[in-house]
Structures are given as structure tokens and as C-alpha cells.
Amino acid sequence: MGEILTIFQGIGVVLQPISLLYLCGGFFIGIVFGALPGLTSALAIALLLPMTYSMPLQQALIMCMGVYMAGIYSGSITAVTINIPGAPASAMTCIEGHALMQQGRGAQAIGHATIASAIGGSIGALLLIFVSPLTVELALKVRTPGKFSLCLFALATMVVISKDKRKGLITLAFGLMCATIGIDKLKAVSRFTFGFPQLVEGIDETTLIVGAFAVSEFISQVKVSNKEYKELSDQANRVQFKRRDFFDIWNDMKEIGIWLYIKSALIGYFIGVLPGAGASMAGFVAYAEGQRTAKHPEKFGHGEPRGIAAPECANNAVCGGALVPMLSLGIPGDGTTAILLGVFLVYGIVPGPDLLSNQLATFAPMYVALLISAAILLPLSLFLFGPYYLKIVKINRLVLYSAIGAIALIGVYAATSSAVQMFLAVLVGIVMYFFKTQGYPNVPFILGVILGPIAEEYLRTTLTLGHGNPMIFFTEPDSLVFLVLTVVFAVFLPRLNKKSSASVEKTTGVKDEDD
Predict the structure, then answer these.
(1) Biggest CA-to-CA distance, the chain
(2) CB-based burial of residue 371 (10 Å sphere; 0-12 exposed, 13-18 middle, 19+ buried)?
(3) Residues 407, 113: Cα–Cα separation, whole Å
């Protein structure tokens, strides 16, 4: 009863004018970043991370929820209209969405994507609100050896779902190395500073996040020719929609049936709970399940609305699911929650079961903001701004990406008050850019940066408790469970990820990357 009352108090916080302003602002930013190919909600939150220093915690989290939900959804806009998903999570939407676009039903395709995203996001947020307390109770039973094994499970899972495990392991190792620079927390001695006193305090997490996402993306976009970008803008200019066209979908929705929406949302939520799985995998699994249970599976690939509703419902439900391990265990569920974890660390907050048990009132507005973003802002944005969504693609790319680069570096300086950290952000960005050009994913790097120090602390503490005997990880039941799960996932997830990537590349020509 007390938890429900706390949630209602969170509603009051979100409905305050300043909180609604932050939520709507974050939602608009998420729409822009999600709809522009190459930009993601993770990058948006990475750029906003330095700004959160001057914001109250609750308002910062409310704004991030708007970015998160809108960023996942808006990738479907360009997926439908120009067959290029704005976000990897919408890769499966290209298949049926663009087929409908070619049939002159592009507005209905975007309408299906929006309504399905609203349903999936709402279900995911409600499950987060009502199921996460049970998750917290289970998390309290996990002791120090189990916490290390859980970190190992998250890091290993991120590697095994990478299309190239060797490359995923290398970027993870690079992140772990960056995280070890500076003062050793347990012995208070400096390490890996290479004689530079500026590195004694280590490399700030904001620096590493901004470098890996913002600076590397800025360098990538510099190499995109103006001709390529102009072709996207010209293609967008040829598409015209009217508001009423977006809502001419009710007969299709009746045929789809409410059960498909619920089932797809559940798939997305529980895949989101798995660390590292992400919205791309959720979209693939939901699409495959929607096709398997369809009365006319032969229609898939030719503009079947079920093929839009299923993946869009699932990938937005991931938002609620991915927050569960991050909040209750400190393990990010996907790339965006990995960046969101950085927001917590900015305020000196380390997520965990005790945190949610003792400070639920602090985070209740975040739950409510996620629900409002899905249930109200998504359909409302379609009604108000639907015909103008394609204007996003027409933003001058030189202005856009120059602004991103400048904001990123200024943000690092604002967060750290150090010109050295700005230089390190550029250096990390250059390294991650070359990694990206060779097919190395950047999400394992971020997880290594964030989870590395936590895993090291749990490992050394556990070995101290066990007097140096590593068998303690196998004799403690909670630790053994996560070690077994690590082995199981190492066998199962690569097969599923391989099918997902093959399906996306075969049908859309778009490479499926980590969110």
C-alpha cells in the first residue's frame, strides 16, 4: 500500500509545470535523435549527461525518460518513409513499414508504429512499477560473491551477443583498462598513470561516455558526403501526409488483436531484463513470433501491419524491462541504460536493491515519466506533429553535427572543469571511431567502464572473504546460479543474435548494431 502511495506522489511531481517542461523537452530531443539515421537515444543522453550537474535529480531522470522512450520509437519514422531505420531497434519495422509506404499507406504504417509503441511502452512501464518490487526482494538475497558473478554474467552476455565475439571482447577489455586508471579504491595508490599526474584522479566517466558516443559519431558523420545526406532530404521532401491518414488504422488493429500487442510487450519487457540483449533482439523475436502465429504468414514482407505492431510494441516495452536490472542490481539492460547509469553516478548514487527499498520516492517520478511518455506523449505527438516528422531529416547536417561536437566538449569541461579531460574525450573518441570503422561495437566499452570498477571491488572483496580461495564462487548458491546462466547464455544467445542479424541484413540491407 505504501508503494502505491509513493507512486501517486510521483505523479504529483511529474505533473508540476517544470517537470512537464523537462519531460516534453526530453521527448522532443529523443524524437530528433531517434529519427536521424546514425543518432540514438544513448547519444542524446550522453550529450545531456553534463547538463544534469545543474539539475535536480528527479527532473534529470524525468527528462531522460522522455529521451529514452521517444528515441526508441522515432527510429520507425525513417524506417517507414525512406527504408533507413533511425535507430537499430526499428530495423525490423523497415520490412513491412516501407512496403506499406510503397503502396501509398505510409501514414497508416507510422500510425501502427506509434500506437504499438504507446501500448508496448505503457505495458513495459506498468510492469516496471508493479513487478520491480518483487525483483528487489530477490536482489536482496544476492550476496557479494553473487554480485560479482552477476557482473560477470552481464559482461559475458554483452560479448557473446556481439556478431564478432573477438571484437566485442577487445572493446570490453579497452573499457576495463580505462576504468582502472587512477586511484585504487581499496589500497589508495595510483595505477596506470604512466607518470602523468593529471591521470591520478582517473578518467571521468562523463569523458569516456561522451568520447565513445558523441565524439566518435561526430567524426563518422564528417565523412558522410553531402550528396548522400541530400539524397535522404530530397527523398523525405517528396513524402506528404495528412493528420487524418495516421489514424485510419482501426480495422487493421481489430484484425491484429489485443493479444499480439500484449504478447509482444511481454517479450520486449523480459528481453529488456536480460543485460545486453537490447531492443533490436526484442524486435526480431516479436516479429518472428508474430509471423509464426499469423493466419496468413505469407503476407509478411509485403506490407503486413502485424509485422509493424509486433516489433514496435516489443522494442518500446524494452525501456521498462532494461531499467529493472539497472535499478535493482546496478547492471544496465542496454546501451541507453548504461549511459543512464552515468546520470546516477553524477549524483553519487549507486543503484542497488537497498536504494530502491529506501528511496523509492526519489525514483517514483521516473517510473511515472516513462509511463506518461508512452501512454500520452507518443499518440499526442503523432496528432500534433505527425506531418512534420520528416522535417527532422532536412536539418542542415553541418550545423547539426558541428553543434553536437561543440556541446559534447563543452559539456565535458562543465562536468570536470578540466581541459585534460576534454583532450581525453577527443582521444577516446578517435580510438572508438577507428574501432567502429572496423566493426567493433561501443556498448561493451561503456559496460566495461561502468561495471569494471564494481566487478573488481566485488571480486577482491569475495576473495578476501574466502581467504584467496576462488571456490567460494562455486559454493555460494547465488553465485553458482549466475555462473550457470553465463554458460547457458553463452550457448543460446549467439544463435538467436545470428538469426536476428541475418534476418535484418537480408530484408533491409541495414546492419544490426548494438543500441
Answers:
(1) 70
(2) buried
(3) 31
- Residue 354 or residue 80, greater confidence: 80
Return the DSSP state at 190. Answer: E
List Cβ neighbours of 272 (8 Å cut-off, separation of 6 or more): 124, 278, 279, 282, 317, 318, 319, 320, 321, 322, 323, 324, 333, 334
CA 333 from chain center: how many Å?
Answer: 8
pLDDT in tens, 334-344: 777 877 887 78
329 neighbors 323 (Cβ within 8 angstroms): no
Question: What whole-number distance in Å separates Cα of residue 342 and Cα of residue 40?
Answer: 16
Please name every residue paired with 190 in a beta bridge, in sequence order, or none if there are none. Answer: 183
| Pairwise CA distance, residues 280 & 246, whole Å | 25
For the stretch 395-438, pLDDT in tens is 666 776 777 677 778 777 766 778 888 888 899 889 988 998 88
Residue 33's nearest CA partner among 338, 310, 403 is 403
Considering Cα of 347, then 352, then 355, then 356, what sign does the dihedral take? positive
Backbone φ and ψ of 191, nearest 5° = -150, 145
The grid coordinates of residue 31 equal 524524437
Mean pLDDT of all residues in 446-471? 82
Q: What's the pLDDT score for residue 270?
A: 81
Confidence of residue 293 (pLDDT cuts 50, 70, 90): confident
Global pTM value? 0.69
Using CA of residue 38, residue 40, residue 44, residue 49, what is the dihedral sign? negative
Are 314 and 265 in contact by the 8 Å Cβ rule? The answer is yes
Asked if 148 and 455 count as a contact pair (C-beta separation under 8 A), the reply is: yes
195 confidence band (pLDDT: 50, 70, 90): confident
Copy the grid coordinates of residue 53.
550537474
CB half-sphere exposure, 297, CA atoms < 13 A? 8
Alpha helices in 330-440 (DSSP H): 335-346, 353-358, 360-372, 378-385, 397-416, 419-437
Q: What is the mean pLDDT of residues 371-394?
A: 76
